[in-house]
């Protein structure tokens, strides 16, 4: 059965996989987070703005799909069904996260407080987990010479690097007249550029860029359109067709196409397929992302609170996902490749990532995910003035 061209989860040679999510707590204007108004800044008598349950639900469900897909990856060589499910989920789970990130980046500018959040909520966790993953690989994979490199993201950390760059360039994308066609052109050029280099996992950064720009261009009414009853009904046969097509394509097509981490030449395809596959995969992803959003609950659910902790689940579950491969669990236990074993693996993956998104885990790892780092920044005069005004009031 055809799978990815390189070992899953490593650098481009060997390569990683993606997955993941958005910065943690409800900070205003952070990617993937519903903006909130701090209580101190709220006008007298008004309640702080609440998080939108729809987006928290979407992020939680997407991170569960991320973990499930990672658990299926070792099964895809022996199970055509697992490969088909894997391909379908990979078509939309990361694009969904990235669209949400772009949507909540619409108000991003170079204001000092937002730049601080960009550093503490994305850049610092990247550095911490890049180091942590490298140490883990050295120990768990018995590879003590594996190099530290902040320029070559390992496994899941590619998303943080990309998110940092996408957000930092948001003012530029808001300035140009046709941002989405331009982003698609950039992604196409990246797809036919095998010499683009591995620094910052640039292929993924550029090939996933259109989804961030799509979210940046979206408005609340677009999400209202997606959540109409007619879209929910239509999504059922659409997903069914996607699964049937994926089952047919599983032995014929490499799943590496859905990682967006290689050029078409590296995937063994001629250059002319770059524009075709870029547009085709973008179209398929947008359709399935829309179907996914159509079925996300709008009301507050038992798991809504976990939507604020998707970055925790995303980064922390990577240790278990990689450890299971380093320690040979899927090779040692043959029953995992049976239907009941595949179901058990799926349930375990969903349960583990759910636990990792819970508030107790968030509190335990907040020092790494959301460090305050007040000591590292100069006092902003505007913030000081606002603080004095609030205190006086």
Automatic annotation (TrEMBL):
Domain Acyltransferase intervals: 53-357
Domain of life: Bacteria
Membrane spanning stretches: 54-72, 84-105, 117-136, 148-166, 230-250, 276-295, 302-320, 340-361
Any one GO molecular function term: acyltransferase activity
Low complexity biased stretches: 31-46
UniProtKB keywords: Acyltransferase, Membrane, Transferase, Transmembrane, Transmembrane helix
Region (Disordered): 1-49
Protein name: Acyltransferase family protein
Biological source species: Streptomyces asiaticus subsp. ignotus
